[in-house]
Amino acid sequence: MFEENLKEIIKQTLKKIEHPEIAKTLFELGMIKDIRFEDGKVFLTLKLPLKEIPIKEFLIEDIKRTLKEKVPDIIVEINLKEMNQEEKLKFMKMAQEAWRG
User: Fold this and answer.
1) Does the domain spanning 4-89 belong to CATH 3.40.720.10?
2) pLDDT tens per residue across span 19-68
3) What is the C-alpha separation between 17 and 94, in angstroms, rounded?
4) Percent of the chain with pLDDT over 90
């Protein structure tokens, strides 16, 4: 069972992870969803604009590494899903506006 303080640390950490190519966080881009805690694990969904984007593995490892820096013994389970059309449009608009180039 997770302590409320630990849940909050994890949620706040997830909200700060930046996209490597867009000057926005993954959370702002709508990429991190469905955060849940169970038996010492954190489960979340990583929503991608396309299921096979080239930086998919980088994003997964970045999320896990960042969480483990804050909570070393955390187990992170990431479910991958593709964004629906509405989510993709919103993502693309933000990506165009905040592209790091």
Assistant:
1) no
2) 999 999 999 999 999 999 998 899 999 999 998 999 999 999 999 999 99
3) 16
4) 86
The rounded distance, in Å, linking the Cα atoms of 11 and 49 is 22
Q: Which helix (H) or strand (E) holds 35?
A: strand 32-38
Cα dihedral 19, 42, 64, 50 sign:
negative
CA separation, residue 36 to residues 31, 44, 55 (Å) = 15, 6, 24
Provide the whole-model pTM. 0.93
User: How distant, in Å, are the alpha carbons of 34, 70, 81, 88, 98 from that of 92?
Assistant: 21, 30, 16, 6, 10
- pLDDT, one tens digit per residue, over 60-93 is 999 999 999 999 999 999 999 999 999 999 999 9
d(C-alpha 48, C-alpha 45), whole Å: 9
Q: Any idea which residue has 């302590």 for tokens?
A: 3
In the chain, domain spans: 4-89
